[in-house]
Amino acid sequence: MRAKIFAFALSVVLAPISFSAAEESVRSAAPIISHIPHERVSSSAIASVGYSKRRHLLEVEFANGRVYRYLQVTPSVYREFMSAHSKARYYDRNIKGNYPSVRVRPRLKDQSD
């Protein structure tokens, strides 16, 4: 029974990750609301980072305003990210493309289009 509940919960969390271009345009009308507090970081490319220990969600806000949420990120990866000398380099090497992600907010310029 637990396995079925876990499989269902996992499918609910991962379901928004794979969708067609047509679904993308529909989904963009209903933005994701984030309640994860963010911390400003010293980086020219990354403006702030938020993390939920309970849900293992990492949010990265870029200097251009775009925000991505990464799923299944362990606390140790978050700690390494926050202590990295270059946040952008750590992000490129260890986070981007290595975790399922969803866009929370487009670039600020894209919002007015």
Task: Please tag this protein with its features.
single chain, alpha+beta, 37% helix, globular, 113 residues, 5-stranded antiparallel sheet
Tell me the overall shape.
globular
Distance between the termini: 47 Å
What's the rounded overall pLDDT mean?
81
Cα-atom radius of gyration: 15 Å
Order of H and E elements: HHEEEEHHEH
State the secondary-structure class.
alpha+beta
* Order of neighbouring strands in the sheet with most strands: 1-2-3-4-5
Low-pLDDT stretches are 17-27
Helical amount among residues, as a percent range? 25-40%
Q: How is the biggest beta sheet arranged?
A: 5 strands, antiparallel
Strand tally, please?
Answer: 5
Q: List the total number of helices.
A: 5
Portion in beta strands:
15-25%
Question: How would you portray this structure in words?
Answer:
The structure is a single chain. The chain has a domain at 37-113. Helix content is 37%, strand content 22%. It is built from 5 helices and 5 strands, in the order H-H-E-E-E-E-H-H-E-H. The protein has helices at residues 2-14, 21-27, 75-83, 87-95, 108-111; strands spanning 38-40, 46-52, 57-62, 67-70, 101-105. Residues 17-27 have low confidence and may be disordered.
